[in-house]
Amino acid sequence: MKETVDQRELESRILKLLADEDLKELGHTVQDVAPEDIVLTLERLTENQRAIVFRLLHKDEALEVFEALDPSVQSDLVHGLRDTEVAELFEGLDPDDRVWLLDELPATLAPKLLLGLSDREKRLTAVVLGYPQDSVGRRMTPEYVTTRMDYTVADTMVRLRDRIDDAETIYLLPVLDDARHVAGVVSLRDLIAANPDDVIANIMSEAQSVRASDDAEHAARKLTEAGFVAIPVVDSERRLVGLLTFDDAMRIIENEESEDSARQGGVEPLRRPYFATPIMQLVRSRVVWLLVLAVGATLTVQVLDVFEGTLAEVTVLALFVPLLIGTGGNTGNQAATTVTRALALGDVRARDLARVLGREARVGLMLGLLLGTLGLVLAGFVYSWQIGAVIGLTLVAICTVAATIGGIMPLIARWVKVDPAVFSNPFISTFVDASGLIIYFLIARAILGL
């Protein structure tokens, strides 16, 4: 049995052997390493290095490693392998994994690979490819084993053994009626525990299912929250068309959360491991957002210009500008992140805007009162109680406004059918910076009589 190794030592050794062009020793090295360690190493190598190492793997291990790679890395690897090697790997993939790869490949290459498939694999892949990009039908497996309500447990076990090599999962079997409608589900555990003569209708459970046209993330979260190993995917007439498995659901959720996390941080998602991402793609993922934020920051400059006279009269006010806009931006980002997460989990819907607004306004007010009291005391002791009052009231107002805006922006985004993460942290920070300064200087003018 292959053992896992220290990842840094393995990577250093592989890089040294590649530099020395010692392919014989490199072959011995990679053949003694567990597939999961090979996957991690391949994702950190260059495209050419990756192709060399991959070719030295045994055929069976190569397919296992290839299936575990990120689809974007698979796409890069395809360009570095010979046509025959690519055709063998492509044929060996499950249909849903094959579609993941096709979505990453250039449009000119995908038809060529599809033509090389066997008739059976071509037919199964076509079923998955027929659904929209973000639908669960695009991520389901069409390879499954079913049973019927009037079958016995013994009949079902025979059917399962006959088709076990063609199914992606055998732990959950949809139960069909004569029209291929999903009448229920039965688990492998239930089959093993039951009497061979028991009828499936007597031991099956009620089926929860998702439509093939449903959003993939929504379906994936439904599966994981319910704790299923798989969930039937049906068409508009509730006829079975596939299964969404737990591993594919986790993959969907991971991709969606990575995308949300990236956009909340002001970058476009990479959709590939960091070291497998070209430098220019890293630049492109960041530069657009930086330009947008730079333009937005001009609002802050304009506000400072308008209140330049106020700053000139009481220069101490300038000392608190970073504190106030930083606190406002952080408060808004916290609210936006919380609500965006709740949207993804289905805890909050777009129609809950009024309720979210009320909750976040109260949360912001309470945070503002806590921070404002602290600001009042500290600024009052160090400078004057008038300055302390300005800082305290400004913190109360900024926190309330920032939390309210941060909470409702993701809901507005969902309502206008835009990714909530896009509307979150970068834009909220820019908006709160400008509005926070206006609040600050208006309060200062009122209290200090400027």
From TrEMBL:
Molecular function terms, GO-annotated: magnesium ion transmembrane transporter activity; metal ion binding
InterPro entries per record: CBS_dom, CBS_dom_sf, Mg_transptr_MgtE_intracell_dom, MgtE_N_sf, MgtE_transporter, SLC41_membr_dom, SLC41_membr_dom_sf
Keyword GTP-binding: no
CDD domains: CBS_pair_Mg_transporter
Subcellular location: Cell membrane; Membrane
CBS domain residues: 140-202, 203-259
Annotated membrane topology: Multi-pass membrane protein
SUPFAM superfamilies: CBS-domain pair (SSF54631), MgtE membrane domain-like (SSF161093), MgtE N-terminal domain-like (SSF158791)
Membrane-spanning intervals of the chain: 287-304, 363-383, 390-415, 427-448
Keywords of the record: CBS domain, Cell membrane, Magnesium, Membrane, Metal-binding, Transmembrane, Transmembrane helix, Transport
Cellular component aspect of the GO annotation: plasma membrane
Residue ranges of coiled coil: none
Ribosomal protein as UniProt keyword: no
Subunit structure: Homodimer.
Stated role: Acts as a magnesium transporter.
Family membership noted in the UniProt record: Belongs to the SLC41A transporter family.
The protein, known as: Magnesium transporter MgtE
